[in-house]
Amino acid sequence: RRVIALVGPTGVGKTTTLAKLAARAIMESKLKVALVTIDTYRIGASEQILRYGEIMAIPTHVARDRIELAKAMEKTAGADLVLIDTAGRSVSEAVARQAELLRSVEGIQLFLTVSACTGPREMAAAAERYRALQPERLVVTKVDEAVGPGSLLSASVRIGRPIVAVTDGQRVPEDIHNLSGAELVELVVGMVGDESSVKLGGQ
Q: Where does the chain have alpha helices with state H?
């Protein structure tokens, strides 16, 4: 059983990425998956994750505080993978409060989710803001929209954790990929050529 929460700034695509991870786990790994959201701030946020859960026919729960989160974890005890969606945070104090809530779940892993479209200075600031949470992994979204995705490496360096996946579109679950170190370098450097260019998804 693994419990993973996606954390990160507003607008980076955490909810869609969460749905991609859930669908991949169900379709490819045949895992029992459950969804939980603690994002009760954005209008329609909980409805969105509940809709994803309905489409995938998996248990989905909304938690507004530590007590409800603990109850949600009890209800998902039979799942192989529990994915937790969170609200975006831009203030360090709010990030710390959210982290305290999430770390109340035993064995939870935090995956910092950042957008490749973010500029170098903003990416560095976001990484610095979330470094105190000690996230276990990074997920980079919106690679397809980024003109120069080089700033994504600065987040990995500042956090000191590997990039576990990148996303490059809205399709669920097709547009999420795990890339090797060499592929990430090629993606950032922008090498051109039939043999050297990176084609996401191994195509």
A: 14-27, 45-56, 66-75, 92-102, 120-131, 151-159, 181-189
